[in-house]
Amino acid sequence: MTKEELNSALVRPREISRQVERCREEVERLKLEATANGAIRYDKDRVLSSPVGDLLENKVIAIVDKELELNRLKYELSLAKEKAFDVIGMLNNPLYRKVLILYFVNCMSCKEIGEALDKTTSNVRKIKSRAIDELINKLSENS
Predict the structure, then answer these.
(1) What is the spatial distance between Cα 141 and Cα 95, in angstroms, rounded to a whole number?
(2) What confidence tens digit (pLDDT) does each residue in 109-126 have?
(3) Strand, helix or coil at 89?
(4) Rounded CA gap, 64 and 68, in Å?
(5) Is CB count within 10 Å lower at the N or C end of the chain?
(6) Looking at residue 11, what DSSP letter applies?
(7) Contact (CB, 8 A) for 29 and 97
(8) Would you say the pTM of this structure is higher than 0.85?
């Protein structure tokens, strides 16, 4: 694994998490638009609507398409998290593993991690940096 692949494996879950959140917000926005005029009631199992023509049909199609995209992104996120866990699992230091998992997999900020682990934000940044350096060293040893 190269440094670029390592970086990608660690950063990818955070990137996809942001995409998932944006897509989830878009689904909610589309549902609100569709229900704003009272034209549609979106149920878990089916869509109930009054006949308002193509506009309603287009909104329903847009919702379904976005929900499919959301499900695809969730699946991608689970794969990305799995890969990140595999990479982080190479570390022997449990604190390094914990900080990297909280940061890259759980998408917590350094401040949030510091509060959770009773450490300063600066200390968390140093731990994260050292953990990444250790991973890079392990990669160079295995090459």
Answers:
(1) 22
(2) 999 999 999 999 999 999
(3) coil
(4) 6
(5) C
(6) H
(7) no
(8) no
